[in-house]
Specification:
The chain is globular and about 55 Å long. It is an alpha/beta fold. The chain starts with 5 loop residues before the first strand and ends in a 5-residue tail after the last helix. 51% of the residues lie in helices and 7% in strands. α3 packs across α6 and α7 packs across α9. Strands 2-1-3-4 form a four-stranded parallel sheet, with helices on both faces. It has a single domain, classed as Rossmann fold (3-Layer(aba) Sandwich).
Length: 282
């Protein structure tokens, strides 16, 4: 491709949305139809489908390293057909049906964000040679706390929401919508830390392949330096005014927030090995 994509990945609740919003400000297109987390519905659905082929999901992930080469080739063929079909209007917008937009002809910076990319990148690299990846990591205690808080919130909504027959039909017909938004696998801090470890292991295994790993805390603590590093890596541009606007919106209270909670501090020793492996000190 003349203009390969920029893909944002990393563990859920690690700051991928923050980086995505920074890149959008710098001119990166991430698609027309997005979910509440700025994830492209088009590529999100494809990632969900690919992971389902392995019996995997975002909360029980697997990569594609050991799949049969013939099957891998078949998956890639299906992806290429899908990318060139009219369903790509989910990314380009409905006007693309008339204009016949194509990923092969994009002449502006583009990409998408989805934490599942962490495990599907092996396939995407074959579809989009030359793509760039930005991995975001965050202190595992803050990530686990944010993930479990979201999980409990979504779980309460799911239980309280009356299930209708139409919800069941929708879940059968659409791979990106079910009658449950919460994970059925994450029910404790221990579950969250185990999942974070899986994502970080995958990030390390993939590092160096035209990828950049950025710490969420570095963006918060040294915003000008880190943001400019990310922008340069993506060959984008953000003027001084735009940079100032981005920096002003950064919530510094989210940096090592767990240190203000005595109960969360106990996890420093319980998960010391993971914390140190990810490059953090106690």
């Amino acid at each position: 491709m003349n203009n390969p994509p920029i893909i944002i990945a990393g563990m859920h609740r690690s700051g991928t949305s923050l980086v995505t919003n920074i890149l959008k400000k710098a001119g990166l297109s991430i698609g027309k139809k997005l979910d509440s987390n700025s994830e492209s519905i088009f590529f999100q659905r494809i990632n969900i489908w690919m992971m389902s082929l392995l019996g995997a999901s975002w909360d029980s992930p697997k990569n594609f390293e050991d799949i049969d080469e013939e099957i891998r080739g078949n998956i890639i063929n299906q992806l290429n057909a899908l990318l060139n079909s009219r369903t790509n209007s989910l990314y380009f917008g409905w006007s693309s049906i008339i204009k016949k937009d194509s990923f092969a002809r994009i002449d502006t910076p583009w990409g998408w964000k989805d934490p599942r990319n962490s495990f599907t990148l092996g396939i995407w690299r074959e579809v989009f040679p030359g793509l760039k990846t930005i991995y975001i990591i965050r202190h595992p205690i803050d990530t686990a706390e944010s993930l479990l808080r979201r999980q409990m919130k979504e779980k309460d909504k799911d239980i309280q929401r009356e299930k209708q027959y139409s919800d069941l039909v929708k879940s059968l017909l659409s791979i990106n919508h079910t009658s449950y938004n919460s994970s059925m696998l994450l029910n404790s801090y221990n579950d969250c830390f185990n999942l974070i470890g899986l994502y970080y292991k995958q990030i390390l295994a993939d590092s160096g392949q035209n990828s950049l790993i950025v710490k969420f805390e570095d963006i918060i603590s040294y915003p000008e330096t880190e943001i400019q590093k990310i922008i340069r890596y993506c060959n984008l541009d953000l003027d001084k005014k735009g940079l100032g606007e981005v920096v002003d919106k950064i919530d510094k209270s989210k940096c090592y927030a767990y240190k203000n909670n005595s109960e969360l501090l106990d996890f420093e020793h319980l998960f010391e090995e993971l914390i140190k492996t990810m490059g953090y000190t106690i």
